[in-house]
Batch of 4 targets.
Target 1
Amino acid sequence: MTTLPVDSIDTSAARRYTTVAIVLHWVIAAAIAFQLIGGKWMVSAGAAATGSVFTVFQIHKTVGLTILALTLARIIWRVANPAPALPEGMSRFERLAASVTHLGFYAFLIAVPLSGWAMASVSPTGVPTFFLLLESLPFAHLPLLGDAGLTERHTAEAFLKGVHDNLALAMGLLIALHIAAALKHQFIAKDNLIARMLISARTAPNSIAKASVAGLAAAASLMFLIGGIAWGINQTVSYQTASTEPNVTQSDAPAPDGAWVINHEASTLGFTITYTGNAVEGSIGSWTGDVVFDPEDLGNASAAITVDMTSVTLGDATLQAQSSGGDGFDLANHATATYQADGFDRMDDGGFIANGTLTLRGTTVDVPLTFTFDEADGSATVVGQGSLNRLDFGIGAVGAANEAWLLYDVSIAFQIFATRP
Ligand code: HEM
């Protein structure tokens, strides 16, 4: 190949990409580097250790969809503004390699974000994509798999994860090749080819026609993003944040004789689960209870607690987002959980045990709770705990069937303040 002296290269406007193409090239290049490095870090233990996995995933998805939108703009621009001719000194092989690489880039720039978007859309967890991290701007999920069950969704998600990962890897390799070629041109062929992709003071101002195409490309890219958000707001996503208003109200039925009056403001019901090695607290905002309890008359003691599962708040945003879907609490079908105990025993240490059952997600399982009961001047303080296995209730049975990131054991803790009626 002929090596041209640097100052003989024509870097005039005709030999350069347009300013719009150059800006799009470098913005997309920076975003891709961020996605490739950030994506790998995001799925690593390092990201989990920060406790901000939810935020990191949301940023990744927002940047990825923005790349898709900018690629759309770039294709429109490219069709209207063909690339400048390659330097004459390039061999036929180099020209072919350049064309194949450029076409490959467009294919990856569409396929990589699309595969990520498809993966997030089929996921059984139903975690939405909050554009720019704003809960008021959920980006649409692709309408894939319709009413498919959780297992099918889980299988599809795992497959698409592999596709997304491998496509991203292949794009990374192509980028390495692309950079190597640019370096070769710069330092071996010394033809200053990179100047074609650099903005220069000598670049001719855009004509009106060019400005119109730039406007069209920008509009297409914005329409993609705004349309996706509008569609997302419309889409019924299974995701639901914990309600602040109590949905479970004390039933109109009279409380059983001797039932304690619970001070809900002061009392707490909660649980702890271990997620990616960290203890995550869950608290229940809205619940009611009919409790009859006299330490001297355990035979007549009873407790009926009803919990509004939509009022559960978790101390981790990823878990919170995943908890409402079909593989979590399945709020669409089971918005309440109940605990019913009619058998109470005194323990050797002076405490008590309630031999009750918990009905959660439509499944009833024995969950004994131990507690202490202290009464003074007609006011009682009850402090108790228990534990359950989330899989007994089918929680995470599809997406977290083992303990890799979510342990089975859930410990329950409660503190109840009540007065005699
Ligand atoms: C050009 C844009 C994108 C690039 C270069 C990119 C790159 C990556 C990379 C390198 C990973 C790590 C893969 C692994 O090692 O397992 C990843 C993971 C992921 N990406 Fe993307 N991504 C892009 C766009 C998107 C989009 C648009 C979405 C969704 C809307 C998305 C969703 C995800 C998700 C959910 C994961 C985590 C998968 C897992 O849990 O293992 N990505 N991405």
Target 2
Amino acid sequence: MKKSEVVKAWGSILAGRPPSLSIEITKECPLRCPGCYAFEAGHLGGGTKLKELSDFRGDDLVKNVLRVVDEQKPLHVSIVGGDPLVRYRELEQLLPQMVSRGVHTQVVTSAFRVIPPAWAQMPLVSVVVSIDGLQPEHDVRRAPATYERILKNIVDAKITIHSTITSQIASRPGYLQEFLEFWCARPQVNKVWFSLFTPQRGATDVEILSPEQRLEVMEELFRLRVLYPKLDMQERVIKEIATPPRNPKECIFARTTQTISADLTTQITPCQFGGDPDCSQCGCIASMGLAAVGHFPVVGSLTAGQIFLASDRVGRTWQKAKQALRPRPVKKVEAVAFPIINS
Ligand code: SF4
Ligand code: SF4
């Protein structure tokens, strides 16, 4: 994160607006990845599942996403799903509009279809492709977005690879190096990021890393970042694996990112995982990255994180006060005064 971006984000927090927005633009996905949190029962926090929400398509989707962006004024938007490439036609309209608004936009996809070459030329637009380990494991988990298909679909793209380290991966010596050897050699790959599998509280998934495995992964990443410059994880970010936030209130990422689902109304809390994530076992790259920024000393022992969190409290209070002072619309019986969504 650049200094100018930190200052802008701070201003946005003080104004009571989360600087980062994550939007699940569709509830559809051609994949059925095991452990996908978006389709888990508790993802939206209530009884409703992502598949049961109404979502938008075509011009309605473009118009309503831009409406949300214009209202929230985020500095950074992540477009996720389902798989956002299900709506690639809409994205072709949406992305130039995001660029014209000066908003950094990141599309997170499985690359099950071709990534339009024009996106590589757009300033402020980045594409993150999720890969679940080396080809044998990935192809089983992520068909039809197999290695073979991804390699064809990214030929003219510029991408960041994001991979989630599971217990199975952590237990195989040399696995991460082999992964980096493969992907860093591709000219289309600008960066590689790793997250660690983050469970829900009380979950017993086989993917969960033991405390020893978390430390081993940390040591391995310290070693690999020197060998593979495309591994875009600074030492202070990797160190955060050892001390994840204790709860969402301490998580700068969760506090500064608003996540909304496919109806563009439902909020996903406390972070993009939804449900009741186990922060003490978190390994999300975004959370670790912002925690590292947060631990940066600004003046004496005062850290950037302490300033961010205090500013967040000020900003939220300010927003509440503004809402309380706003004149209330006169209610009419026959119509809703300010409908949020036209479905
Ligand atoms: S591609 Fe993403 S949204 Fe689709 S099933 Fe896999 S993890 Fe879930
Ligand atoms: S990103 Fe991680 S630390 Fe932050 S709220 Fe979610 S699970 Fe907790």
Target 3
Amino acid sequence: MSCSFKRLSRCECHEVAFEEILRYSRLLGTDDLNSLMERIGFGQTCTACHCDVKALLSEQSREMVDAELEPASVVAPNPRFP
Ligand code: FES
């Protein structure tokens, strides 16, 4: 997803860093932009940050899914089943 020439790192209008938005997203277990905007209070003025926030939330969700699909760490062999 490509949003703007220069990717933002925070909601400039409300001075909320994207890191904070991602932290709340993980904490609340949601990547819904509207829910996060209401809870945190960003993105309600010019909306220029919406595209970048959506892209970051999407990347975070993909990373979380990928992590869940990683094979479990090596399991010790069961001596009963050589
Ligand atoms: S930059 Fe987020 S509302 Fe303006």
Target 4
Amino acid sequence: MSGEISRQAFVRRALGGLAGAALLGSCRSVTPKAVSTPAPPDWNALGSQLDGQLTMPSSAGYAAAKGVFNSRFAGSTPTAIITAASVTDVQKAVAFAATNHIGISARSGGHSYIGASALDATLVIDLRRLPGGIDLDAGRNLVTVPPATDLDSVQTQLAASGRSIPSGSCPTVGVAGLTLGGGLGSDARRCGLTCDALVSASLVLPTGAVVTASANDHDDLFWALRGGGGGNFGVVTSLTFRTFPATDRDVVTMTFPMESAAAVIVSWLSWLSIADRDIWGMVNITVGDGPGRCTVILATPPGTGSSVAGEMLAAAGLSASSTRTRTLNRIDFVHYFEGGDAARVPRAFVAGSDIVGEMTSAAADSIVAAVSAWPQSAGSATAVVESLSGAVDDIDPAGSAFPWRRQAAAVQWYTEGPSDAATSWLTAAHYTLGSASVGGYINYPETGDPLARYLGPNLQRFITIRQKYDPTGLIRSGIGAA
Ligand SMILES: Cc1cc2nc3c(=O)[nH]c(=O)nc-3n(C[C@H](O)[C@H](O)[C@H](O)COP(=O)(O)OP(=O)(O)OC[C@H]3O[C@@H](n4cnc5c(N)ncnc54)[C@H](O)[C@@H]3O)c2cc1C
């Protein structure tokens, strides 16, 4: 492909020379300069230098090697895939891509909503075989992990040592992608986002240099890596997190009639935003496949679930159709939100997000109206509302690239229904929310959206840092103009 571009460039340059000669007429003779065509990428040479593996489109394993979690992107056509087995492999791959002007898709867990870890015409650097393992420094309560470690493995190993990091909900999501985009989950109100626990990250820059970004070293990069989204600046090869003690938690599940869904969202969120930060919650509204369901899930200190739920209902003036409370140890708590083995299976889905600045009644009405617009015969669709209060709010919005620390809630739209209906539903949802939405969450990105929608007021600083570390745009994120 780059050979093709070079040939076109050569032809353009040659035609330009001829046109110039014609304009000069016969006044003087012109000797055309020799123009050399860059050599095509030498894939064989690269492959022979790797500890890991090179997979080309002609290789038998190409389809499997480029496979990502969202099978809507199964037809993507990366130029090649390098399965890196060492940081040196990553450096070689980055140098090769830079020399040959091929963009890079870094691949950790492969759970990008928009298939951004196997973009067309890029060199995929797959990090799943990087060595290292999950390394807990019990003395300093730090854990260091390779980027593609799946979240469930991190949580399982940490829980065995009585520690944890702020979790997301998917067992197989890669810790790198989750962290680089923020990391929103059931620990957010007491421990913040996953990226808030990041202490340092090592990465291979487009120059091939390996650097470690932390609060004391490359602090601009460290700022940008915490919530600016994956696929920027370089390829992250390891991440170190602060851990917190793993504790039991109560989980309370309450269901409400669909008619009261908007009231539930407003009153639950206003109660939660000033509740003790040991309490976390989300509202899940699902339509299709039967009557609509509105569910509130709370996580509370062990033994307090029933009383906290009672407080919430009293404060909100609500009564639940059903309530279930159980006490879970740390790993069962993580597994509860992961959703079991079925959650590990790749599938086709359409999803996106809105950030709600203030949860007014009108904003809640619009969330319910938007999710309810899903065509009932097309399967099910869900809106998940999560609070951005508590520890998320402890960091200044300009203190890391993740900008949404003073807003009320993140809303995720998700469906595995037919693609056309799903895309129309999602577009209509944004329209229905209108000015109640101030942006989107970069870990739930949508194809074609501008980066500004995800980085809000932090966009300019992010772009300046990206320009400094990756001026040619070698590392691709699939978001915005890349
Ligand atoms: C089922 C499911 C559940 C989810 N639940 C949550 C949740 O609870 N909370 C939440 O916050 N998010 C959640 N997400 C979103 C998830 O955090 C993002 O999709 C995340 O980017 C996935 O990371 P990954 O490493 O698995 O994906 P990948 O597709 O490998 O990577 C995602 C992006 O990061 C880039 N990238 C990956 N690795 C690196 C690296 N080492 N260096 C530089 N760039 C890199 C990729 O190029 C791509 O642009 C969920 C996603 C799914 C599919």
